[in-house]
Amino acid sequence: MRRMWIGVLVWGMVQTMALAQPEPAAQQLPRWRGFNLLEMFYKGSSTGPFKEEDFKLISELGFNFVRLPMDYRIWIKGGDWSQFNEAAFQWVDQAIEYGRRYGVHVCLNFHRAPGYTVADPPEPTSLWTDVATQKVCAMHWARFARRYKGIPNSRLNFNLLNEPSGVDAAGYAKVVGLLVKAIHDEDPNRLVIADGLDYAVTPCWDLVPLGVAQATRGYQPFTLTHYKASWAAGSDQWAVPVWPEPLGFAGYLYGPAKKDMQSVKTLDSEQQRRWKCRLAGWLVSC
Predict the structure, then answer these.
(1) What is the 3-state composition of the chain as percent helix, strand, coil, each rounded to the nearest 5?
(2) Predicted confidence band of residue 90 (pLDDT cuts 50, 70, 90)
(3) Strand 80-84 relative to strand 76-77: parallel, antiparallel, unpaired?
(4) Which residues contact 87 (CB under 8 A, 6 or more apart)?
(5) Taking a C-beta distance cutoff of 8 angstroms, is the pair 157, 28 a contact?
(6) 278/235 Cα distance (integer angstroms)
(7) Is the peptide bond preceding residue 121 cis, with omega within 30 degrees of 0?
(8) Can you list the domains of the chain with their CATH numbers?
(9) Whole-prediction pTM
């Protein structure tokens, strides 16, 4: 199964409910389990239509969810974010149809949105501060909402922005509010999910009044979830994850050559019996 990020997605505010129960709502989501499919993940890298065999296999394995993290540059023409490429939208159309065919819920996500991305290169303008960029991003989401209006929330939801960072809660909530309004002006019933802050690790309470569901990430322990991940710098040098996870402390140990930076590290324990302690240095200064 190529171009598939193998990993079960755990969504914030998720509650278990059978597929036969009412449609998903912001206050109560199904127990979705599945995968990211990467055909539209990054412009120029394996870009193309989604594969029916992926949906078929996902269904056969007992999963019920796919998330499509997408790069907006794929569906615009000539770098002009006001001009759209119909062929790219048809790839999304087909993915949603595959989802219907195999009983797999489809989640659409802007991994790179006008003005924001966690990837390289960075966007030339900021979605958090530039009003013109905010209007463009809202226009893009409105186009998706208009195109897929009427498809039930049991089959489709919109996940606004991938793992936002570099913005405070109030600024993030303002942008989310603009995008939600653009979507609901076209399709008032569309289920919208917003990632949490700090790369989706921290819930954003400022989103509560907006009536959206919220998705967070269980990146704990980080040395396990990102072990040898190609996008996590240095992760190929990490020790093989073990459990229980060894305890550590934040700080540096400096050698005698840096006398002005030397300090004492103290380890305290209230153990009632003898125990062994092993210290392993990661970065050591001499």
Answers:
(1) 30, 15, 50
(2) very high
(3) antiparallel
(4) none
(5) no
(6) 22
(7) yes
(8) 4-215 (3.20.20.80)
(9) 0.79
CA–CA distance, 53 with 59 (Å, rounded to integer): 10
DSSP bridge partners of 213: 193
> For 26-29, which contacts have Cβ atoms below 8 Å and span 24 or more sequence positions?
26/191, 26/192, 26/193, 26/211, 26/212, 26/213, 27/213, 29/213
User: For residue 108, what is the enclosing H or E element?
Assistant: strand 105-113
Token pair, residue 108, equals 């659409």
pLDDT one-digit tens code per residue, 171-226: 999 999 999 999 999 999 999 999 999 999 999 999 999 999 999 998 878 888 88
Question: Could you count the other beta carbons within 10 Å of the beta carbon of residue 59?
Answer: 17
Pairing of strands 213-215, 192-195: parallel
Residue 166's closest CA among 212, 133, 220, 129? Answer: 129
Of 35, 36, 34, 28, nearest to 12 by C-alpha is 28
